[in-house]
Amino acid sequence: MEREVRSLKKSVDDIGFIGKNLISINDLTNEQIYKLFELAYMVEPWNRSKLNVLPGCQMATLFFQPSTRTRMSFETAMNRLGGMVITETTPLITSSSAKEETLNDMMEVVSKYANIIVLRHPDENEAMEAVSYSECPVINGAFGHFEHPTQSLLDLYTIWRMYGKIEGLKVCIASPDLIHARTGHSMAYALARLGADLYMASLERLRTPESIMQKVRNFNSKVKEVFDQSKDEFNEFISDMDLVYLPGCSAPKGEDAEEFKKIMDNYYVKYETIERAFKANKRLYVTHTLPRRPGEMDLRIDKSPGEIYFKAILYSVSIRMALILSMIGL
Length: 330
Ligand code: CP
Description:
Layout: H1 2-15, H2 30-43, E1 58-63, H3 69-80, E2 84-88, H4 91-94, H5 103-113, E3 116-121, H6 124-131, E4 138-143, H7 149-163, E5 170-174, H8 182-193, E6 197-202, H9 210-219, E7 224-227, H10 231-238, E8 243-246, H11 257-264, H12 271-279, E9 285-288, H13 311-328
Parallel strand pairs: 1-2, 1-3, 3-4, 5-6, 5-8, 6-7, 8-9
Bound molecules: phosphoric acid mono(formamide)ester.
């Protein structure tokens, strides 16, 4: 075990991310992303047991928006590493945020208890300002409509585990609304940087914001946008991909809801599309960042070889273990 810990420490030091914050996926270099994959692979044997290398270290998870996966996966990762977790899942009710304490003050205070903080917040500007008040490293657990960098890390790691590479893969990020898809934004940056052939499929009126597309194109000039496909056109289009990436979207409520549901239907992934690909010996994986809503894909895909959204759940623990180690150190 001593030899394993020494080897882990070498890998952690080699990443060069101790004490840093992870706010955007672009805070990591390509080399650091690949080194994180290698570290995640090293700790993978412990993602269902205990490695116990961070005793006495504490994580605080501060979630101002609901979460199942991000919070529990981080908490599981910290527990697997032998650390401890304190959490606020309803800060607007149970913390002093309910008494109008500012997020800046909360971060300053909590960072004196914690060695690392994971923050999810609906307002990206407020969240980003508050990060500077923390004395310990902070992980963006999804800020507003900005980014969700660890979702893309876990999805990239899952792809790397399935294909052994990212470069050259054909990936379609698809959602009717790519304005508000924070997971889609992080993933677009990362896939473009790592050399995937990237396609962004959405409604033209809800296309990825130009500020994001400009950066994405600077990383990789081959990125394409495709708009306003019908269901058949969309399924025909994705049948040529290696991966369909569904970042989900928040359907509007009220009078626009029914109309939007009809549009969403055009981005429905058919079971037959996936089945046909695998029958022709072509791997066509589907991932969804989850939670998903009825009408986004045929649920029979869950039991098909194309499913990787549930496979990604366990990989998320490995990559988050690696990330925590790389930020706290050994
Ligand atoms: N994918 C994701 O962020 O899920 P949660 O909202 O459940 O954390």
